[in-house]
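Subject: design request, 132 residues
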């Protein structure tokens, strides 16, 4: 449906109620066709920018504005809990669908990264002193 919406052949409202909206025409591992993948580059990203990657099992029950406000005004974990709760409430009168999503919020890296490969993390049989 998203492809039809982006091509201007179907409205977003029409896509939500379309009788084929539950069909998955593009998927990794389907074995029948090469999936359609869009790769882009974004410049000017900064700390606090937030991304929502989701299936229609989530986006079907929200307006774009509701999603934007929820993910930008809350911590990712809190936003996830809110979205799950509202999706469950809003989907009770509909045929249920799977709901998959990830919220990614960019943060400023720590000034000095911790060394997570210290001697206690060294696999047995490897002499760390020989590497210095």
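Subject: RE: design request

Done. Sequence follows.
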């Amino acid at each position: 449906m998203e492809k039809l919406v982006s091509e201007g052949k179907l409205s977003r409202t029409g896509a939500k109620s379309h009788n084929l909206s539950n069909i998955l025409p593009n998927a990794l591992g389907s074995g029948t066709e090469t999936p359609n993948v869009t790769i882009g580059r974004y410049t000017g990203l900064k700390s606090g920018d937030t991304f929502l990657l989701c299936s229609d099992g989530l986006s079907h029950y929200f307006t774009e504005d509701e999603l934007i406000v929820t993910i930008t005004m809350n911590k990712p974990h809190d936003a996830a809990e809110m979205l799950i709760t509202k999706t469950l409430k809003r989907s009770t009168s509909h045929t249920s669908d799977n709901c998959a999503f990830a919220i990614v919020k960019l943060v400023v890296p720590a000034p000095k990264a911790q060394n997570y490969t210290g001697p206690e993390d060294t696999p047995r049989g490897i002499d760390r002193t020989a590497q210095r």
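The beta strands are 50-54, 101-105.
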